[in-house]
Design brief:
The protein is an alpha+beta fold and about 425 residues long. An eight-stranded antiparallel sheet has the order 3-2-1-14-13-12-11-10, with helices on both faces. It has a four-stranded mixed sheet with strand order 7-8-6-15, with no helix packed on it. It has a three-stranded antiparallel sheet with strand order 4-9-5. Helix 3 crosses helix 6 and helix 3 packs across helix 7. The N terminus is likely disordered.
């Protein structure tokens, strides 16, 4: 068993659904744009830049604490800016290379390592995780012994997710957390055993998103390589691509740490998770969650990164870097489930696809949400345009659909970004 005793947290914070409730959260602490980074590599006229600057001001006036955004075109980052605060109380602005939690964008890194191992002949995508991982807990998890690695990658395993088990929500994101405690890598699996949760279907029968899938894939990586997931991601992806501001939080040192973070503590969040006494309320429905770490998310959602790093990563995913042509094709192949396939939305091997991302334009990529963070990373199909947006506020378990961040992304930022790209190209 993995050691789950309390440990010090490496690299902590960088110093520096109800529509009426969503409307109540759109309140202003006062717009605060961080000083813009150098304009090198942007090449856009100031009038075009104002399209996005105005959108960022709207985001902050909607009550989002801090934002970091970037647009990639071709082989470069065309535009990047930040808005709002890293630290609301001390009014410390977000800086260009500040790291934010990426949530489930972490899955894109884990999936890429699994595909590399398959390409190297070290794993077979049609074998189950139990072929590689010998842990008794796996025998107690529905479908863990029958779902293949490919089923885990594309969320057709039927393995239930620990993320929404009622006891875990309070222990992992709510009032019963032990601040400073680093969860063991397999510890979340105790919350998706058959006595607590049933399978969501037979392997391959239907799509059902599950964080457990990627916890299992993380364990496969470690069993096969003999190394930590963090070390394998760094050796295989981060170092080759020069991603210097991307880390697996709690499981490797983070020089300089990452931004402070906040969460929507709505009545729904209080009912399901409860607000930890160490999360101070800053205004109605908003608490600071900085005292918590991302360790329970681990391979399913525990990475932090800068917006510019994620633009570079999305380009690598899109262009098939770090994989041969055949495995790149495998990564982007859709395996329809036996029932319930959605022609407008598909989940591939660690990457999602949406037919109508914006006004009929399809996109590949991933979003992420966890305690204290919301993230988006997408590239537009048939183009060389990449869009990344990071926010240091989370909406998990809040019941907000959309959350203020989601509302801003879809109705303000995305249309502005598309207008900007059209204007400068």
């Amino acid at each position: 068993m993995t050691d789950i005793s309390p440990k010090p947290i490496p690299g902590r914070v960088r110093n520096a659904g109800r529509p009426c409730l969503a409307l109540a959260l759109v309140v202003c602490l006062g717009p605060a744009l961080a000083p813009p980074p150098p304009a090198a590599g942007q090449g856009s006229a100031p009038s075009h830049d104002r399209i996005l600057q105005n959108a960022m001001v709207q985001g902050i006036t909607m009550g989002i604490p801090g934002l970091s955004m970037a647009i990639g075109v071709g082989d470069s980052v065309l535009w990047w800016r930040t808005a709002g605060y890293n630290d609301l109380l001390r009014r410390v602005p977000v800086q260009a290379d500040d790291r934010f939690g990426t949530g489930s964008i972490t899955k894109t890194f884990v999936a890429r390592v699994i595909l590399q191992l398959a390409e190297e002949g070290k794993v077979e995508l049609d074998r189950p995780a139990t072929h590689y991982v010998d842990l008794p807990i796996l025998q107690r998890i529905p479908n863990a012994g029958t779902a293949t690695l490919r089923h885990l990658l594309n969320h057709q395993s039927g393995v239930p997710t620990w993320e929404f088990q009622e006891d875990w929500i309070r222990l992992g994101r709510g009032r019963d957390m032990t601040l400073g405690y680093v969860w063991g890598k397999e510890e979340t699996l105790e919350y998706c055993t058959g006595d607590l949760l049933a399978a969501t279907g037979e392997p391959g029968a239907r799509y059902a998103y599950s964080n457990t899938n990627y916890t299992l894939l993380g364990l496969v990586i470690e069993a096969v390589t003999g190394n930590d997931v963090a070390a394998e991601i760094r050796r295989r992806i981060l170092e080759p691509l020069g991603l210097r501001d991307t880390f697996l939080e709690s499981f490797e040192e983070i020089p300089g740490g990452y931004v402070r973070h906040y969460h929507y503590a709505t009545p729904a969040f209080e009912a399901s998770a409860g607000v930890h006494r160490g999360f101070p309320e800053l205004r109605p429905y908003l608490v600071e969650s900085t005292g918590a770490n991302l360790s329970p998310e681990w391979a399913a959602g525990g990475m932090v990164a800068s917006a510019r790093d994620l633009v570079r990563w999305a380009r690598a995913l899109r262009d098939g870097e770090l994989l041969g042509p055949a495995m790149h094709e495998e990564a982007l192949t859709y395996y329809p489930p036996a029932s319930g396939a959605n022609p407008r939305s598909r989940y591939l091997q660690g990457i999602s696809w949406s037919a109508d991302f914006h006004e009929g334009t399809a996109a590949f990529g991933h979003s992420g949400g966890t305690l204290g963070f919301t993230a988006y990373m997408y590239w537009l199909e048939g183009t060389d345009v990449i869009l990344v947006m990071l926010a240091n506020v989370g909406g998990m378990h809040s019941g907000l659909s959309p959350s203020p961040v989601g509302l801003f992304f879809r109705q303000v930022w995305l249309p502005a970004a598309m207008r900007y790209v059209a204007a400068v190209r």
